[in-house]
Amino acid sequence: MGRFSGFKYREVARRMRACGFVFDRQGPGSHEVWRHMASGRKVTVPHHARDMAEGTLRAILREAGIDAQDFLRA
Question: What pTM, to 2 d.p., does this model score?
Answer without folding.
Answer: 0.90
